C-alpha cells in the first residue's frame, strides 16, 4: 500500500506524525508553545516546497502526454 504513495504523500504522513509528537511535547510542557509553533511552521514550509516540486512534475507529465 505505502509503496504506491508519492514522495509528497509519504512526506505528508510523516508531517502528521511529527505534528502529533510536537503537540504532545508542548502539552507536556517539554517545549514552549512558541517553539512548537516554529517547528511546525518550518516543517510546513518544507512540505509546501515538496508539493510545489511534485505539482510541477504533474504539469510536465500532462504536457508530455
Verbal overview:
The radius of gyration is 15 Å and the shape is elongated. With 65 residues, it is mainly α. Helix 1 runs antiparallel to helix 2.
Key terms:
65 residues; mainly alpha; 2 helices; 82% helix; 0% strand; elongated
Percent strand = under 5%
Structural classification: mainly alpha
Q: Which runs of at least 5 residues are low in confidence (pLDDT < 50)?
A: none
Radius of gyration, taken over Cα atoms and rounded to an integer in Å = 15 Å
Helix content: over 70%
Reported for the largest beta sheet, the result is: none
Net shape: elongated
Number of strands: 0
Number of helices: 2
Our measurement of the CA-to-CA distance between the termini, rounded to an integer number of angstroms, reads: 26 Å
Q: What is the string of SSEs from the N terminus onward?
A: HH
The number of distinct structural domains comes to: 1
What average pLDDT do the residues reach?
90
SSE arrangement:
Layout (H helix, E strand, L loop, with lengths): L6 H21 L5 H32 L1
Helix pairs in contact: 1-2
Put the structure in a nutshell.
It is built from two helices and no strands. The chain is mostly helical and 65 residues long.
Amino acid at each position: 500500500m505505502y509503496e504506491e504513495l508519492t514522495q509528497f504523500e509519504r512526506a505528508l504522513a510523516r508531517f502528521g506524525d511529527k505534528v502529533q509528537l510536537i503537540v504532545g511535547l508542548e502539552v507536556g510542557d517539554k517545549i514552549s508553545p512558541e517553539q512548537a509553533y516554529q517547528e511546525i511552521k518550518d516543517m510546513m514550509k518544507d512540505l509546501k516546497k515538496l508539493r510545489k516540486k511534485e505539482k510541477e512534475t504533474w504539469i510536465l507529465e500532462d504536457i508530455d502526454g
